[in-house]
Amino acid sequence: MSTERKIWFEKFWCWIVDALNTPKIRSIRPATNLKELHQVYNTTVAIYDESVFPDIDRNNLAVKTLIKACENAGLQPSVELVSPFFDAFLEFVEMDEFFDRPKLDLEHEYAWSEQLEIKKRLRRFKRIYSQNEANLERWTGVLCSVFEGIYRSLPNQVDFAKKDTSFFLIDFIYLIENPAECIEYILSVICNQEVEESCLFYNLREQFDQNAIDFSGIDLSNPKDTKPFILPTKSKLEASELVDKYLAYSPFESIFSYLCPFSIPIQARFEHCHVIGGTGHGKTQLLQSFILDDIKAKRGFCVIESQGDLINKITMLPHFDPTVNGSLAEKLILIDPTDTDFPVCLNMFALNARGMSGLSNTQREMLLNATVDLYSYMFGALFGAELTQRQRVIFNYLARLMMEIPNATIQTLRELMEDGKKYKPYMDALQGSARAFFQTQFFSKSFAQTKKQVLARLWGVLSNATLERMFSNTENRVDLFKAMNEGKIVLINTAKDLLRKEGCQILGRFFIALLGQAILRRTSITEENRKPFFVYIDEAHEYFDERIDEQLNQARKYKVGLTLAHQNLDQLDSSLKGTMMSSTSIKLAGGVSSGDAVQLAREMRTTSDTILHARKENGYTEFACWIKNITSRTIPVTVPFGLLEGLPVLPQKSYTELIERNRAKYCRPAEEIVFDNLEPVVEKEQDDAPSIDKVSDAEEQTVPPPPVKQKTVPENLEIPKTGRGGPRHRYLQNLIKHVAQEKGFKAITEQAVFDGAGSVDVSLEGEGRKFAVEISVSTDSTWEMQNVSKCLSAGYDQLILLASENKQLDKLRRAVTSAFPAEVKENRIIFLLPDSFISFLNDENAKSAQKTKTIRGYKVKVNYSTVSSREEKTKNKAIAKVIMESMKRMK
């Protein structure tokens, strides 16, 4: 008789027995029935008491069984391997019941059907107890075989015993390579004939039968229903659904739903990771799980992010306490543009000559060629788009030249674009086509327009005071090659709020270029001596183009793994999207749109629904994960929240010391950065340049400006100290300087007067007149009067006092008019709001002749393009608003 028919027959017989269990039937039932039940019970208990079961240490039995299963599967036993099974083992003991002494209420009158069930169970126990040692060995042997089969279903690359890998949390079922085959194996071992005849796992087998009947849709009440069982391998169910349908109400549920660490081997991480996390889904928490594991393992890594929040959390960890011996404080390199008083010392062109000395000629040439490519990639950020062919050519040769010029900086590059003749000796020292280019092409008309384009963008970069301070150093104090080899922790804040999008991209690309250069220099290190190093780039789309493919391939060879994170696929163009998909072996997605899910499903070997099911709950979030050659399908991984936030933070004193140490090693005080005085540049007119940019030879003014009457400095004049406004004040100075330069004025911030005894906020020159601009952010009348005296005594034609609002300006006007009535009346002192200041600059411009225009204080001939009055007003209004808001933030 088949199993399902036996089940149907037994249930049918019990129904008949209960139907006959009426008071009348019970009154004629033989009185010996209960006595027979008691007798069976007493006999069974007696046999149990003599068996091995009362003395079994169940915990010890569980450990021995699990260790044996691990060893049989060829695995090293570990807590991670045993933990999911230990509690389940004890559940199997309880489910089979015979480990405990049988119990029976001898005073209770059991129904006829109950008596039949109890006697059936007791006789089953009696049969087990009669061969207790053999059956115990058989019982543990069955579980050992089942556990061994589960262990063998794990991929070879997943090794819980290793501690040097990153991990998330994952339901155990998703570690199984083929869940359907694994579950079918479990059913076959538990439900085979030998186990059934030994009466072991009776309740478990009953539950498995019922689960299979329910899922297969078999109607036991209908004898004509001959539908077969649907086996797991024929079900087409997902992993979690297989557990729900076939293993419901069994200890296997707890095994396969056990949250265990999911290890990603380091070798897989060298093949790079692509993270797509929708807004608020927990992308940063995911990155933190990687980073925290690297910190614990004392691995070197680099973080590049534009918001600074993640970096701030990392630097506040107690692992970096400089007062604790053995901490990671000495390994920290912090790049923070928001620390404007101590800008980091960077140089785009400082290729470490010492790093080249140990290379063969082939390695040296390979590094030089790759460095040129990296510079082209970095320069692409200057233009915000792909370089044109002509721009790429000039940058390729400029990169080679810049590496030959000692102490070259971004200012050197600017000078080359303006008038590169003084660098001709270095051009002549080049070899091959590079030398020929500078001899025949660089100074020709065909590249004149390209040089102007480059120069215009360079001026745009240099107008950002923060970037200018960082990149105007002759040395590069951040050596990423050394950092990689020493396992340093490099935290780079690209400060999008401060540098805006363009500056953020330039800084990010600069460091990615340095990373690329450092990776290539690893050719000089033997493979076994290359320490693993990991790079995390948040909002990666801001920095990369389609050439990332080559960078990823190079990194893979030299034990550097990149994790590239962003929010959605629309942030990538089609070429970059294809590169990111094909060049990363680890993919994690969560909180994405349905459209992105469809695209990702093809790459992650799954369905879009699986990706969309990754949910965010209180305390954790989920990501769909696929790892090439490790997971046969996409699996959901769980990332707990607060891994970093839950850790203690550095005491303020320790944090201050940490920052001071970082400043001393990698930064320089802002006041120590010296910029060379800029001289006017004279270039020949290029006949083939477009008319809008056609510029004549820069002529010196034929009529000398009228001599400025120098006033004697009053003996009691106290020169105010500079720098009162701090970083924001300097930012506003540079903003006003940039606006004035756009209007044609020569502008200098912190112009020294009286042999350096004092300085003017912004000094303007145009059409033979000099203007001093003082930014008023204080209501301290004494301070303002000193500023006025200083500027008037320095011989400026006109002093502009700039305030952000009428109330402050009126108060300033009253105080200054009272102290300097004649100067105010003669218009030597004027009081302006930001919008009036823009109008003032426009009026001064209008006074110049139509055929000439002053550019940064020098006369040149220009052909003007037409700009509507409405456009000009809109632009001026926007500029005035920026200045006004900046002044208000300074208060």
TrEMBL record:
Q: Which Gene3D superfamilies match?
A: P-loop containing nucleotide triphosphate hydrolases
Region Disordered, residue ranges:
685-725
**Where are the membrane-spanning stretches?**
none
Identify the PANTHER family for this entry. SLR6007 PROTEIN, UNCHARACTERIZED PROTEIN YJGR-RELATED
Q: What is this protein called?
A: AAA-like domain-containing protein
What is the originating organism of this protein?
Desulforhopalus singaporensis
